[in-house]
Specification:
Chain A is of the alpha+beta class and about 325 residues long. Chain A has eight helices and eleven strands. Chain A folds into two domains: about 100 residues, Sulfite Reductase Hemoprotein, domain 2, CATH 3.90.480.20; about 130 residues, 2-Layer Sandwich (Sulfite Reductase Hemoprotein, domain 1), CATH 3.30.413. Helices cover about 30% and strands about 35% of the residues of chain B. A four-stranded mixed beta sheet of chain B has the order 1-2-4-3, covered by helices on one side. Classes of the chains: A alpha+beta (about 325), B alpha+beta (about 80). The structure holds protoporphyrin IX containing FE (HEM) and iron/sulfur cluster (3 copies). The site of one iron/sulfur cluster (SF4) has 17 residues of chain A, from helix 4.
Chain lengths: ~325, ~80
Amino acid sequence: MTDHFIEDKTTKVNVNLDNIGERVDFNDLKSGGFIKQRQKDLFAVRLRCPGGRMETKKLVEISKIADKYSKKGVVHFSFRQSLEILYVDYKEFRNIVAELEKIGQKVASCGPRVRVPTACGGCEYNPNGLTDTQGMAGMVDQKFFGTPTPHKFKTSFSGCPIDCARTKEMDFGFQGIVEPVWEDPLCTGCTICSEACKEDAIVSDPDTGKPIFDPKKCIFCGDCIRACPTEAWKPKRYGHIVRIGGKHGRHPMEALEVCTFLPDDKVAEAIEKTVEWYNANGKRGERIGNTIKRVGVQKYLDFMEPVFKHGSPVNYLAPGV
Amino acid sequence: MTEIKSNAQLDLRGVMCPINFVKTKLKLETLEAGEVLELVLDSGEPIQNVPKSIKEEGHKILEVKKEGDHFRLKVQKG
Ligand code: HEM
Ligand code: SF4
Ligand code: SF4
Ligand code: SF4
């Protein structure tokens, strides 16, 4: 018997689970997260760490478990911010899952489903951060982790346009933005904002030093707001740029921007409806970016209108679509 | 407008980020709350970054003057 929740990407070693049915409760493994290694009988156990955040106390306990079950005594920090315990014997699955369960640590997922979200530090502690990326990642993990989809569905949250969490390469990504608004009476014409803006969206009036703002060039990073000594630049509203259909891998694709200034409280709805659309329109094994290419982005936008109307539309779409 | 008197001066021309801010911070630590530090910062990265960090640490920028390719700031310790 080969359990389909176990990812076996190599054909070098067969996964033989014939004799351990009574020792491994496959319900424990439903979410996947056990990845066959090239070494016989050994698996990497991928932990569920939304946003790459972990309490130190839990980390200490995990280290003890990893030390006990990893035949080589090593872990790996994965590219999607999870911790993988390497060289775990498949006969120990039940024990390691039980021990992890005891400290409240779940195993992550593989295969065609909603994956654990990744996120940068965001506004909690990063000076550039505009949105609570960690809070969002936790919420999405709670609500959507493991939901079946036609192919893998990766989400991420970046706190600002620097986009450390690479929302442009995600199936569905959210990147924080802020809309700046300027109040003339508070402005002293010091010209700092035009220096602070790296997008040339602000030039200083040569006579008064006051800002002349070009909204078409603005990427909503908020540098002007943070730099202005007098609070003449203020935040008008915060939200997310929503991106869909990105991926990396053999044939990378850049995501399309489909909504701007989507508020925090509409993120869950956006994911729920997008997963619904993907399940209705996507072919098995097709990433959502390719579904959108095949079906047409307008069909998707029409479907999402009840959610995206809470943000602002994007006045351009990336070339080629 | 009356000239704002400064209690200390720091010329940070030619000093890179983030050392210019660290120096600003160390200098501010020698002052009492309410005292004023006069700073000279280059345009480009220093003027893009240092005022943001000064604000974030709770100090107040009282005055900014552009002088050629640098800026003269008066910062009140918070
Ligand atoms: C990786 C370790 C460290 C880094 C990256 C670092 C970095 C810096 C930087 C950027 C400055 C400002 C430099 C300047 O004003 O020109 C500074 C100043 C200073 N650091 Fe460190 N530092 C480190 C370790 C230490 C340690 C271990 C000590 C003391 C035991 C120390 C004591 C100081 C002091 C006293 C100053 C003030 C110097 C001044 O008066 O300008 N630093 N450090
Ligand atoms: S995306 Fe922005 S907020 Fe997030 S880590 Fe990068 S710079 Fe900080
Ligand atoms: S938000 Fe960023 S891009 Fe827009 S004007 Fe301000 S500094 Fe420039
Ligand atoms: S930084 Fe603020 S005070 Fe200075 S010119 Fe810009 S808006 Fe005016």
